Amino acid sequence: MPHLGVQMPSFTFEGVPNERMFERIVETALAAEQAGFDSFWVMDHYHQIPNVGAETEPMLEAYTLLGGVAARTSRIRLGTMVTGVTYRNPALLAKVVTTLDIVSSGRAILGIGAAWNESESRAYGYDWPPTAERFERLEDALQICRGMLTQERTTFHGKRHGVDGAISAPQPVQPGGPKIMIGGGGERKTLRLTARYADMWNGFGTVDEIRHKLDVLQQHCRDVDRDPSEIVKTRLGTPVTEPDIVEVSRPFFEEAGLDGMVYGASRGATPEDVSQAGRALRSAFG
User: pTM for the full model?
Assistant: First the structure.
């Protein structure tokens, strides 16, 4: 059975005041849960991103929001698509994701990537290191988070981050800790880290581009003696009409060889739109 997720990229709802914003988000998450989606995702940004809307549009802090959604849902898994590694100390991130797992009774997913939004980072006063350093931070964070999500005390010293006897109590509800998803398609670094450390991968692109990325990922898995079928491989896409939701998605399952998809809800999508998408996808793909 494919993994089907829904991402909510915008909190701009016509006619919905700020005091009703969270209720609208919850209504959408509940619609996704009831329609059979496996996971519900929000972006980890502080400004709205250019391909969705104006940077001054509403944007909520991801993990605070997911904690609230966790308290109002019961089945759907919850994560960020994806956490920028430069935005939080990795040990704090592990504690935040553990807390989400406790609040949700075992439904957290840790989505993480090397970060890309320089203007947002500088606006908020975050360091913006070169690309190579951001990937070193990502690899350190993956190891620190894996340690803290699976054991009560972690010591690790990497190139950019370290912890000395960091206590992680309580431990997450999920046996073995929440799944880790890496987002991005970089072939030399992102996919190599996915092969070594991740349980899930999310990318984007055409059928041919995704097929190529999966071939590269398979080679990285062979390099570290890992079965690539252990990694759930998904694509983020935003089909609009109900026929498109199925027909645009089908080639990615049948030709590219994905294990699932994340439906990026359009700006202004209603709970009814998300419910319709979920029913169409479940009907088409089981």
Answer: 0.96
More confident of the two residues 280 and 165? 165
Dist. CA 110–CA 81, nearest whole Å = 9
Query: Which residues in 90-121 are b (16+ Cβ under 10 Å) and which e?
Result: bbebbbbbbbbbbbbeebbbbbbbbbebeebb
Fold of 3-285: TIM Barrel (3.20.20)
Token pair in block for residue 124: 């908020």
Helix axes 62-72, 90-103, angle to 10 degrees: 10
CA distance 109 to 202: 13
Residue from 156, 155, 150 nearest 165 by CA: 155
What is the C-alpha separation between 207 and 235, in angstroms, rounded? 10
DSSP label at residue 229:
G
Cβ(183)–Cβ(198) below 8 Å: no
The Cα–Cα gap between 234 and 240 comes to: 18
Residue 7 has pLDDT above 70, yes or no: yes
Please compute the mean of the pLDDT values over residues 252-258 and round it to a whole number.
Answer: 90
Q: How far apart are CA 109 and CA 40, in angstroms?
A: 10
9-46 as b/e, with b when 16 or more CB fall inside 10 Å?
A: bbbbbeeeeeeebeebbbbbbbbbbbbebbbbbbbbbb
pLDDT band, residue 246 (cuts 50/70/90): confident
pLDDT higher than 70, residue 240? no
Residue 210 amino acid letter: I
**Domain-wise residue ranges, the chain:** 3-285
Q: For residue 126, what pLDDT band results from cuts at 50, 70 and 90?
A: very high
Contact call for residues 239 and 263 (beta carbons, < 8 A): yes
